[in-house]
Write a structure and sequence with these properties.
Length: 254
Amino acid sequence: MAESDNGSGNGLEFHPMDQFIVKPLFGDAPITWSTWYLPTNVTLWLLFSVLAVVGLMVLTTSKRSVIPSRGQSIAELAYGFIYKMVEDVTGKDGIRYFPYIMTLFLFILCANFLGLIPMSFTTTSHIAVTAVLGFGVFFTVTILGFVKNGSAFLGLFWVTAAPLPLRPILAIIELISYFVRPVSHSIRLAGNMMAGHAVLKVFAGFAQVIFIAPVAILGVMAVYGLEILVSAIQAYVFTILTCVYLKDALHPHH
């Protein structure tokens, strides 16, 4: 946001989407397909997310204290919460895939929370990041479904509980909805994170206008608190949907 140079001089320009621009860490060269290898603000904050997960689950639990520290308590609570989720949704058969689901949850949660730090970059606001996660889940559960069940995995699309004349129609609907899964899975996360941060930037811009600054600051505080909640909820939603898809792969019959 900056003062307008070509107006009367008292207008304000808002650029809430500028915070999502991918920029190289060194130099000003634009990012193109031929310069994909350049480290950017995205890769930097992805690295920070990985380090945050390692710090939470490895460094804080290294002593395995009987009386846990705050960090160890958080790690144990996260472990127990996700373990119970995987067990409840997928059943005992899904427990062996708990490390994968736990890693997904912690990475998204840390990436979301790191994006709330002022001057940081929200990696999960980019569809390129969330699509890798979403399609990764899609291909994982699809391959697992065929490995575990063979051609019986196709029974996921054949609704035996429905009347016979309706089953072909329902099979087409089920097939379409199945292939839409990775798209909705990734867009939901990226869209929610991008929208919230854009609203924060708009309220922060209005905070520079003196006569509405108090209201704008209150708006920033309210939206920021909401974003903290949304960051946790979106990590939870992504994870529980992964568990649901995994359940379909392990038990494809309706």
